[in-house]
Design goal:
This protein has 168 residues and is mainly alpha-helical. The model has no long low-confidence stretch (mean pLDDT 82).
Length: 168
């Protein structure tokens, strides 16, 4: 039984909309994580992306059983993996110890208490993230590019002529 995303807000949790990104970083990951934040906080784009994810991942699955990884966690980890061209071991490390990625995933707590820290086991990451293939990432990327073009305030908007390649 999967769900889109449910962030348990309390005093220790950082809201995804409030995440601060390093603006002067030359690393490729912060701009991509910023784009994911935009996907999360924009209702229309969020709905379209989650519909694609549900169609691909939750199709023909029973709504019973134990809770799987949230679709949002799977998407964030798939995007990080493709952005960094990394292996599964490094992705597990990033998912469990990189603060910025954990904030975007909505699981980073700011308090000193680590007793209820959400951890992502290697096998869970492997089994779930591989469900998102290149074609699905291209579809999501296309939605993000269209949303970016709609933000431009140009008078001479040209329609997008062809689908771009995967950006993340």
């Amino acid at each position: 039984m999967r769900q889109r995303f449910e962030q348990q807000m309390n005093l220790r949790t950082v809201a995804i909309a409030d995440i601060k990104f390093p603006l002067k970083s030359r690393d490729e990951l912060p701009p991509v994580l910023k784009a994911l934040q935009y996907v999360f906080i924009t209702p229309e784009l969020n709905e379209k992306v989650f519909e694609l994810l549900e169609e691909k991942i939750c199709k023909d699955k029973k709504q019973t059983g134990r809770k799987g990884m949230d679709l949002w966690h799977i998407l964030v980890l798939a995007v990080v993996r493709h952005t960094l061209s990394t292996n599964w071991d490094r992705l597990e490390h990033l998912a469990n110890y990189d603060l910025l990625i954990r904030e975007v995933m909505g699981v980073h707590a700011t308090a000193f208490i680590e007793g209820d820290k959400i951890e992502f086991p290697y096998q869970s990451i492997l089994d779930n993230v591989q469900l998102i293939d290149e074609a699905l990432l291209q579809q999501i990327n296309w939605l993000i590019v269209e949303a970016g073009h709609s933000l431009l305030k140009k008078k001479n908007k040209k329609p997008l002529s062809s689908k771009p390649t995967v950006m993340f």
